[in-house]
Amino acid sequence: MAVFQHPGRHALAVLVRHGVLPMELGLIHQLFGGARSAAGEPLYEVVTCAPEPGEIRTGADFPVRVAHGPEALAQARTVLIPASHEEDGAAPDGRLSPGAARALAAIRPGTRVASVCTGSFALAAAGLLDGRPATTHWRSAERFRALYPAVRLDEDVLYTDDGDILTSAGEAAGIDLCLHMIRRDHGAAVATGVARTTVVPPHRDGGQAQYIPRPVPEPRTASTARARAWALEHLDRPLTLGELAARESMSVRTFSRRFRAEVGLTPVQWLTQRRLEYARQLLEETDLPVDRVAAAAGFGTGASLRQHLQAALGVSPSAYRGTFRGPGALPVRAADAGPAVRTAG
């Protein structure tokens, strides 16, 4: 029996277990359910399932009733696993519960699988993360590393993307991951539309490092926000670290240290990410030649843009444009493509 009723939509199954966190379950439905085509049609069909259909306990004082079992996982193109405060890491040996093991075994080879927060424990216990990059909530990182030493854990990032396996950190980082997946599937315009409707930033800078408590907090008056805002207005320029530090009247050393503490990235890493985002936007929304896109985004040459895009996404600028530019797309005039496009941060 077919669980998914709309063949034209991306079939996404959400596997919930006893102890599921309601916020995580809700944000998945909210974000993917809000993704629409240019014609206003839903792009995803989201179905909730459980190891066994029926009433599932949550981390709150109310349960959820789930109609579908593992058969939904066998039919899905993408499977998303939110956290379970009852199951994740609960077994001393790090093994899955029998029900979760049977459910995960139903996932077809080649299916994209993702987790939110400590849902990564389930993926690791199933052996899906061995030798691959992953993240989880920073509070659970030490226990995760002890249970699953074969996983390349990075607790500093908000999410990881290794193609068919993706993981995110805490609950709010699940928003970042979902928007990233929507952006990867359907482009920046669709993801930004979902973010705008949900009133969240389309992209957050940095990683979990900025949220981990420190014995001596940074002074609240010291910030690199003005320099970041100024850089976003001048992405086409060959910005230097000294130039950015001068905007905050700091030494380069102090600026670099505070920038990393606030954002979770070095200034160079942050600038490269922002430039890539802007280049992707221009490739999606304009007919500018690749060299013009590269210049506007601050990469200088088309060859440099190709190198960075290939490293980040595994595609060339022309291939990326071909994926996300439909025949009915309305290009922005070349004169309108300036560097002053703000992103989060």
What does this structure look like?
By secondary structure, the chain is of the alpha/beta class. It contains 14 helices and ten strands. The protein has helices at residues 22-33, 71-75, 98-105, 120-125, 141-147, 171-186, 188-198, 225-232, 241-247, 252-263, 267-285, 290-297, 302-313, 317-324; strands spanning 10-15, 44-49, 54-56, 64-66, 78-81, 112-115, 133-134, 152-153, 159-161, 165-168. The strands form three sheets. The chain has a six-stranded mixed sheet with strand order 2-1-5-6-10-9. β3 and β4 form a beta hairpin. α8 packs across α9 and α11 (267-285) runs antiparallel to α12 (290-297). The protein is globular, with a radius of gyration of 21 Å. The N and C termini lie far apart (46 Å).
Strand content: 5-15%
Which regions have little confidence, pLDDT < 50, spanning 5+ residues?
Answer: 210-221, 326-345
Largest sheet: 6 strands, mixed
| Straight-line N-to-C gap | 46 Å
Number of helices: 14
Radius of gyration from the alpha-carbon trace, in angstroms: 21 Å
Oligomer: single chain
**How confident overall, as mean pLDDT?**
86
Largest sheet: spatial strand order: 2-1-5-6-10-9
What structural category arises from helix and sheet content?
Answer: alpha/beta
Give the SSE order as H and E letters: EHEEEHEHEHEHEEEHHHHHHHHH
Q: What is the percent of helical residues?
A: 40-55%
Overall geometry: globular
Beta strand count: 10
